[in-house]
Amino acid sequence: MSASRKAFGSLAKAMTLGLLRDRAAVFFMLAFPLMFLALFGALFKNSETPKVNLVQIGQVQAFDKLPSELDDVLDITKSTDRDQALEDVRNGDQDAVIWQHGKEIELRFSQADPAKAGSVQSIVNSVVQQANIAATGKPPAYRLAPGTVEDKSMKAIQFFTPGLLGWAIAMGGVFGTAITLVNWRKKRILRRLWLAPIGPGPVIAARIGVTLGLALAQMAIFLAVATLPFYGLEMTGSWWLAVPLVACGSLAFMSIGLVVGAWAKSEEAANGLAQIIVLPMAFLSGSFFPLDQAPGWVQAVSGVFPLKHLVTATESVLSRGGGWGDALPVMGGLLLFAAVLTAVAAKIFRWDAA
Amino acid sequence: MTAAIKAEGLRKRYGDVRAVDGVGLTVGRGEFFGILGPNGAGKTTTLEILEGLRRPDEGTAELLGQSSWPRNPDLLKRIGVQLQASAFFEKLTAREQIHTFASLYGVGPERADAMLETVGLTEKAGTREDQLSGGQAQRLSIACALVHDPELVFLDEPTTGLDPQARRNLWDLLRQINSEGRTVVLTTHYMDEAEELCDRVAVMDAGRVLRTGPPRELVAELGVDSLEDVFLQLTGREYRE
Q1: Distance from A15 to chain B by nearest Cα, in Å?
Q2: Where is the secretion signal located (chain B) (predicted)?
Q3: What pLDDT shows up at residue A48?
Q4: What average pLDDT does range A203-226 have in this prediction?
Q5: Does B57 share its domain with B121?
């Protein structure tokens, strides 16, 4: 038993060193997805609360004392050149222009973005109404007490973290496994291991151990980056359920890698086939953008990919407050997928390159 | 004591090709035995059947008194194998390679380092496999095959592609291995190598053993000048694939 454990340990070490010393592998499995996270996270950071850019010409009394809540939605620039300001609105550089003309408050805005046009009107309208009430000297009859509910539409980072993490784990599982299998067959390490007095157990266990270790390392790094204050990922209650989910997912991707590696004759072929599988899978699984708007058939097709289920379930436990009910069926499905594809790989497995 | 190798009636067919077509061999303990033959003669397939890598369609192969098929871990501990392509783990240094193989056989790192010293690679211990020269890679691969102190060693074309210096060096190493009491079986298509090293050789062609015997006796028997002449007389002069 201890001989098997020793063999497991040394094989796992050999595989880990081989992986870490392969700069291209480290780049594609770790740095590349992380770059996407850093980039997407920064690009879409403020996309949920677009500010309204308002140009104020001269004095507008209603706007003298603005409540501070409006700072989040309203960005006011003061100017004296009304023609220039109107031109800016026409060009789309500014959203609206406001000026006072006696008792009239004039507002000009563009209809190019209807959502923005709507919010310009309602914001300015509410400010003016409040000013009117204040001008009567009476306390307002009604007060609105606003509060938020847990929102179905989330901050971008809440969505990108599970999506891109899933993609990274898929690359690690599929590429790492497929290339190693082809390489070991080509270099006859498989044969050499056959001639060593160890069973298949330590070899398989070492491969699984390294794949899981890589996936969990990817997860730790992703979460560490995403929870930086700059990106501001907020993990919900049962976020730790993402750990077993990622483990099951990486086994499913490993099984894809086994099929690719068993089929492909060269590393180039394995690389190409893995790319053909992973990239479309990532797009159709919502790794890069949400699939809510996608046509029904796309959503149906994406259902066959383990990545889609991994991303959905991870997003649920990580960002949406989901629990066991969301995670457990997906874990079962991923393991079943892994079992079926491993059986397929065993069927087409070859010892020799010839 | 049983023979180191006792093979009878080995046959292996790939489609229409009879790679091995009725091979019988007996190799005594402590013998240095060479399998000679042109490319495609069936040397490597014969070796792989003997090692237990492939199952013969017909026939039996016994190593040290135990059948090599099905796979038998107890027997595998007693044999050392160097495959034709050097089976190294990617991106690992010479020392890491031999330590990995050593641990597969339950051998400690001290013994692995000593083996590296034996083949003269201590200075190259920190060099990655792809940075080793052909001769260094072959020596490392032989060291990996010997790390668990096997009684019987198989070497498949160990000197192919080496320069004369590296080849002579390796010969010394192989003689040393044999003089320590190990049985050594190698394939080669260098006749001078076989003449120099082997106690007995088997000349193969088209999947059969044409002649077996000590090199000098074969030369005398066929009335020619060298083992090369024996080889050419037995296997003909036409080109091989």
Answers
A1: 8
A2: none
A3: 53
A4: 95
A5: no
Q: Do B105 and A195 touch (CB under 8 A)?
A: no
A189 touches B at CB < 8 Å: yes
Q: B114 lies in a domain?
A: yes
Helix, strand, coil shares of chain A as percentages rounded to 5?
Answer: 65, 5, 25
Q: Is A265 on the interface with B (CB under 8 A)?
A: no
Domain boundary among B117, B149, B181: B149
Which residue among A14, A17, A195 places its CB closest to the CB of B76? A195
Give the pLDDT score at B40: 87
d(CA B52, CA A351): 13
Q: A72: closest CA among A41, A46, A95, A107? A: A46
Best mutation target among B68, B82, B89 (most A Cβ atoms within 10 Å) is B89
- B194 with B217, same domain? yes
What 3-state DSSP class applies to B70?
coil
CA distance B150 to A17: 28
Chunked into runs of 10 residues, chain B (241 residues) has average pLDDT values of: 93 93 95 93 93 94 94 94 86 96 95 94 95 92 94 93 88 94 93 94 94 94 90 85 64
Instruction: Give per-residue pLDDT as tens, A282-302.
Output: 999 989 888 888 888 888 889
CB within 8 Å of A59: residues ≥ 6 apart: A100
Range of the domain at B183: 1-78+152-236
State the ipTM, two decimals: 0.91
B241 domain residue, yes or no: no
Domain around A116: 52-136
Query: If you search the block for the tokens 């050789």, which residue do you land on?
Result: B201
Mean pLDDT score of chain A, rounded to an integer?
88
Cα dihedral: A255, A260, A263, A266 (round 10): -140
